[in-house]
Design brief:
130 residues; alpha+beta; 2,3-Dihydroxybiphenyl 1,2-Dioxygenase, domain 1; 2 domains; 8-stranded mixed beta sheet; 17% helix; 42% strand
C-alpha cells in the first residue's frame, strides 16, 4: 500500500529544482546513490525529470540555460505570492526573477536572501490537484 503524502503547509519546501548541464547523468547518479524515483516529464522545449525522494520530498531536474551555472533552487510554499514578495522586499531580500505563471499548477518568483542563496516562493493555482 502506497504511503499517503502529508498535507501541503505554507512555509514548507514545496519543490526542489535542480538545474544540470547533463540531466540524464544527474538523474542516474541520484537514482543509484539515493534510490530516488524519477519520471520523464513531457516537454518539447527541454529535457526534464520529476523525482520523489525519501521523506516525501518532490522536485525536478532540468537542463541549465546557456548563461546559467548548475544549481538547485528550493521553492517555499506561500499562501499569497504578492504578500510574500512585499515582505521579502521589506526585509532586505531582492527579487531576481519576477512572477512566472505555470498554467494549472501555480505561480512563482525567485529571490535572493540577504547574504545567502537564491530561493523561490511558490503559490499553488486555486484549481491545482495534488
Amino acid at each position: 500500500m502506497a504511503k499517503e503524502k502529508p498535507a501541503r503547509k505554507f512555509g514548507m519546501i514545496a519543490h526542489t529544482e535542480i538545474a544540470s548541464t547533463d540531466p540524464v547523468a544527474t538523474k542516474e547518479f541520484l537514482e543509484k546513490v539515493f534510490r530516488w524515483d524519477f519520471k520523464k516529464i513531457p516537454s518539447p522545449a527541454v529535457e526534464r525529470f520529476s523525482f520523489s525522494a525519501s521523506g516525501n520530498a518532490d522536485g525536478s531536474i532540468r537542463r541549465t540555460r546557456p548563461e546559467e551555472s548548475p544549481a538547485s533552487i528550493n521553492y517555499v510554499l506561500v499562501e499569497d505570492l504578492s504578500s510574500a514578495e512585499r515582505e521579502i522586499k521589506k526585509t532586505g531580500g531582492k527579487i531576481v526573477l519576477p512572477r512566472v505563471d505555470v498554467p494549472r499548477m501555480g505561480s512563482f518568483f525567485w529571490f535572493k536572501v540577504p547574504g545567502g542563496p537564491i530561493l523561490a516562493c511558490w503559490q499553488d493555482a486555486p484549481d491545482r490537484k495534488g
